[in-house]
Amino acid sequence: MMIRAALLLLALATPALAQPQVISTPGSPAAIGPYSQALRVGNTLYLAGQIALDPVTNQMIADRSIEAETRRVLDNLKAVVEAAGFRMSDIVSTTVFMADLNEFARMNAVYATYFPTSPPARATVQAARLPRDAKVEIVGIAAR
């Protein structure tokens, strides 16, 4: 009987698995494929990769420098993060895909301005090709 009561208490104390909530905002470009800008599951936000698309035109920005692309990518991510009720400081992990790792230092200088304290864990890899021939794409995970 005691085991049955303990199991019942455990079942009542365990919340149901959180259902994924699609996050979408016009402050970030519309998806260019069958994916969501982000999915929130409980207190975790899974951010889709962003490239330097203008959220108004859904076209690549005119300034194709690595600095400009990195700023646009991070502004796009920020819009999605904030639409979900999170902050950039809630991002715990990012993966940065770059077309040319020779531009890493310049990308990194811009990236650092978005995470001035306690930057997220990060992996950076060179990709053979990114969507729309972007120079950089960043994905992330935020948690609270």
Automatic annotation (TrEMBL):
Keywords: Hydrolase, Signal. This is Rid family detoxifying hydrolase. Residues 1-18 form the signal peptide. It comes from the Bacteria. The keyword Transmembrane helix does not apply. Belongs to the RutC family. Pfam families: Ribonuc_L-PSP. NCBIfam families: Rid family detoxifying hydrolase. GO terms for molecular function: hydrolase activity. The keyword Metal-binding does not apply.
